[in-house]
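Here is one chain, start to finish.
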Amino acid sequence: MPNLRILLADDHAVVREGLKRLIESESDMSVVAEAADGSEAVAQCARSKPDVAVIDISMGEMSGAQVTREIRRLCPDTRVLALTVHEDKSYLRELLEAGAAGYIIKRAAADELIHAIRSVASGGIFVDPRIAGKIISAMVQPRSGPTSTVRLSERETEVLRRIAQGYSNKEVAALLNVSVKTIETYKARSMEKLNLRSRVDIVRKAGELGWLESV
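Its structure:
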């Protein structure tokens, strides 16, 4: 993976400094911009065009969703990873609908944050596993009819579950020791069986099926 350019936005300078040191300890990551509030985050993002914007969603005058929407509007290639202390389903729903690619709580371990950054940078969606099950399952209604009785193969289930957890196609291929093309085939087949059309659909379905509760 090429060098990842990261924007950090948090209204606590000490937190930003800690995150910066953590990120820059990775040989393929660098912090290219910092911000202390939402409007500064949007401006810095437009100026530096980072690959990933790690955004504290509680910075005052702009909500995390507002910041996310502005970043996605001005910098559509930038992936937004929401950093938060909140474990409430309304925050997750709002951030996902605003265009965030990831949601991680601040008490996560250092290696989990690095994994989350890599996941969203690779095109995946990352939802903190400590809250994914209880929050996403509350977001969806149990379905009746054909989709509730659809049976996936063991490999299709594993591929879709890993993708829901935030792994990229390339990472899943490496874990299962198969080609990326094979993973794409399993993913497409299982999405068709379950009538899913997007990554957000995959995450929501995973919550409904309980795949995220034990990760």
